[in-house]
Fold this protein.
Amino acid sequence: MIKLLPMRLLFALALLALPSLAVARPLDGSVTYRERIALDPKVAVTISLVDVTHADRPAKVIAKQRIRPRGRQVPIDFRLHYATSRIKPNHHYQLQARIDLGDDLLYANKDAIPIDPLTAKGPVTIVVQRVPDQDEPTKVSDKGANNKGTASPSSPAASLKGTEWLAEDIGGNGVLDIVQSTLSIEGDGKISGSGGCNRYFGTVTVKDGVLKVGPLGATQMACVPAQMDQERKFLDALSATRSFRIDGAKLTLLDAGGKPLVRLVKNKG
């Protein structure tokens, strides 16, 4: 009995310690898209649960799953496992998904997907959008053109009408992977898009290399600090834009002194 007592004590202590051990929690869902395009058998689908609390730091990955569909088509089912001990009070979490083919990003979720990892119940559907081909050519005007009045179909001003762009850099500091700030330039002198949290709208003047944005209006939703910070910087940059430069499928907005404010890539939708 004397020899058995220490073993029993150790066993009891081990049982007491069990509640402090990390408990893995599953979250089920699927990744899909709306285009009627078959997935290449060689693609990889990556789903991540990330902590986006701090706007001045990269998102912290809490859980990640990488799936090789090998011929399977969307929807692609996933199951994330994460330790509940890694979920911190008052932190903000989101899901993100992407589909890659080698080094090329084909699809990614355009809208942020906030989630409470401790209370979320699956399945969760993540809709990803096609990422534009950065090699897609954009028409520009010939140097010898001498058109007045309405811009010709090949002029930079005309090539912007009816286009949508996705920000890939704001102020030289990049953008958050899971927060998308967009710009849609309509043919009637109006612009709209997402700042990263709220939808915005306004007017724009595009002529002879000049791009000037009028007063902007926006919805008033509250998002996590990281999203709100990027949105504020993006909208401030739009308001400060005075000219632009097109390089292939990329659009750079410039301030009055020619300093780059935002770099965007053309979105095929």
